[in-house]
């Protein structure tokens, strides 16, 4: 047994050395990152800039604050202040119960209670609640009124990606204003330094105000609720030289905002005769032309550090220096292909946005911390796309931050599986910080989220093949596998195990009663159970017999005309003249590694058929850009992979600061980060390799490309 464990460890240790050889000489990482600094010379609401650290983020406009809130909300990226741990629920005066969202669903001869009653009062309430709490908003006022776009000219703004610091220079009615904005490297602290003659005269001040909550009747990009001041409280509890504390409370949610300033200033609140609006405070200079302050957000579990502007800026510089220098890097600066610069821009800006939005202790919603979507809840089905890139790009510690939430939710997930009559742990498709499933007509039927923790734990083990990793994630892997084996239903007549119905597969476009044996989900079940058996071997345990039985007898992925179907029985998806074929079956080779259940040439024919129906590369948009490039690269078609990543169709556009709109909801999910994450997953595979990849550097790129890569870890 010991010999077997040692052999397994040696094989796992060898996996990362599959990385392609790199050209001699270290990459000038600062130069690569500097090439893609975001520069604004005009007022562009699609080029709002976000600073943050994964657990805290602030998005600002060209003033360096959030002055032009409505303009940016209506025409581009919302301006918000968010953290991962402040959550809010509206009152429940009718005593609605989560149990009221449940309805019986037939499942292979028995009934399961699923929270499908989305459109009932209880369904709507528990779908919307809890949701993240919006934090303070920071604006410039001129002569007591919020600064307007027509007051501004001469804009020169830069986001230095290497330091995470925004520098904004502009003219306000002809007078210069310079603003420096940054977030702390690890804490929920914003730092601002503003300098202008208008500050010295007292005409330009900083407004700090607090909304009640989000208008949750709007699921994507909900606006703030400003017009209900009586429903929340903003209490000035401490005021001293250079310091003030504002206690916030709304429906039981509590947090503090700690303001500290190092320049002569005073805070004016609604309690003074000058202002009559609650939740509204003004910081104004009492000497000099500079306002320098920090705003720290805290609660009982997250105390506010006493940071200055200088210490916060230093923390930002250090955290970003560590991120850029200790992780992976790709340099396409000497590639002759004219598409290389845009591919590199998308990658570098996406790397920045991943740390800002996705590197927190709570697995994020699909719009991260930039703005609210899906009520701020974690959509676990796309979590491999979210998190695998952290492993590939050398930031396994950030992957593990999110996995820690899964570890904490194990007891709840095990209880959920048991209540439904399954073994193991059932992960919620959509949940808030508390891990409770969210009602929905689709949510309970999604299953491609269930193997995700196995996939991600395996990535951690590839990077850290040691007993400590097995001990930390062993239960997570085992309980996830138990559910996979329990969920697959055996046909007693044939001995074959099937998935569904009822199911919703990746595309979510087919009725739950018709979804049986979808190709990708079958392949993911095989992969998850095989990896779980490998974990048992590494732990010195015998294989689990039932898992082996499911692996050996799980239904074969369905085919028609030597191409994979998306779902068994749903045929003719490639008939002549049909447009817009589904693509989820391609995830079985690309997102997943090659396996005995997927034939490479059948996958190739399927990929070509999908690609042809999509009208060349213009059909690969959103996170499917990453999906398509992953499959093309693993099939040995690097030219096609590059073309997909370089797609310049309008719906594949990356905005100036790196965000991308969701094509299906371009005005709602304005910052749709699965696009960025899947892009990095694909580019990381193309540059850093995968198990069984062709020998040589950057195996997923054409041979005539000059690609320099450092610190990338290969995918399975």
UniProtKB/TrEMBL annotation:
Keywords: Signal. The keyword Signal applies. Residues 1-20 form the signal peptide. SUPFAM superfamilies: Six-hairpin glycosidases. The keyword Acyltransferase does not apply. This is Six-hairpin glycosidase-like protein. It comes from Pelomonas lactea.
